[in-house]
């Protein structure tokens, strides 16, 4: 497996891949000063060369991850930690990482290049959009829809049957009790919209 981005996020993915007995062939990064990361070689800037293994974009920022994914013409892999619990009726699409202790319940779909972070809980019949990030300890109750690129902050809770639009930001520790429209930032308990930028 190759990784794109020699970051702290990459370090966690490397641990997951090690637990899967999947070697990291190398990492790509635009910063020429970075030569290695936790013992793996950093190969410099990706120049479009053909790869002999799949690649995961190891960048935590949702917007940057989306821009990189839309430019690359490679085969994308996925990484699912051994300590994660993933229902055999759920679906995890390419490029996505499911971290240690995360739970993904029945009939849930997690889109491309998403992050289900440490001990996040995604209950039955949820839909998590491409490039979304469910942060550590966040909870999506049943039948929650999370749009493309949305970031659910650490420890946030979304009650059942709600829809959170695309490219939203839900603050850490927030409790979402109603639908949130696209491009909104919502914080608090209950979560209140403090910003909505339709131009993003």
TrEMBL record:
Acetyl-CoA binds at residue 133. The active site is at residue 124. One of its GO terms (molecular function) is transferase activity. The record marks 125 as: Increases basicity of active site His. Substrate binds at residues 7-9, 60. SUPFAM superfamilies: Trimeric LpxA-like enzymes. The keyword Signal does not apply. Residues 2-72 form the PglD N-terminal domain. Keywords: Transferase. CDD domains: LbH_AT_putative. Belongs to the transferase hexapeptide repeat family. This is Acetyltransferase.
């Amino acid at each position: 497996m190759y990784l794109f981005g020699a970051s702290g996020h990459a370090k966690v993915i490397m641990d997951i891949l090690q637990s899967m007995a999947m070697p990291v062939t190398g990492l790509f990064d635009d910063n020429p000063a970075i030569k290695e990361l936790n013992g793996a070689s950093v190969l410099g800037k990706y120049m479009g060369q053909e790869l002999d293994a799949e690649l995961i974009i190891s960048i935590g920022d949702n917007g940057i991850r989306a821009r990189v994914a839309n430019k690359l013409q490679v085969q994308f892999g996925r990484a699912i930690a051994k300590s994660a619990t993933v229902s055999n009726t759920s679906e995890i699409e390419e490029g996505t990482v499911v971290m240690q202790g995360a739970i993904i319940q029945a009939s849930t779909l997690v889109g491309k290049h998403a992050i289900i972070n440490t001990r996040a809980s995604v209950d039955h019949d949820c839909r998590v959009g491409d490039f979304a990030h469910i942060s550590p300890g966040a909870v999506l109750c049943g039948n929650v829809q999370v749009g493309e690129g949305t970031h659910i902050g650490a420890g946030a809770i979304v009650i059942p049957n709600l829809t959170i639009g695309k490219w939203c930001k839900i603050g850490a520790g927030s409790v979402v009790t109603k639908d949130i429209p696209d491009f909104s930032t919502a914080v608090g308990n209950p979560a209140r919209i403090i910003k909505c930028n339709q131009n993003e």
